[in-house]
Amino acid sequence: MAAVQPNLSKMISAQLRNKANEFLNSRKHANNLADILQMFEAETDNYTPLLLTVEVIFTELLRRGDLIEGIVPLKPADRSPEAEYTRWLRECFEAAQTRALECIRRGRTSSRLQALVTACKLMQAEGKHPLETSNGYYFPSLRLKNIFSVLLDSEISMSAPIARFQEFTEYRDVQQYGLKVLSTLAYRKSPTSVYMQNYLELLDKLLVCEIATETKTKGKERDNEEKEEKLL
Question: GO CC terms for this protein (predicted)?
Answer without folding.
Answer: Noc4p-Nop14p complex; small-subunit processome
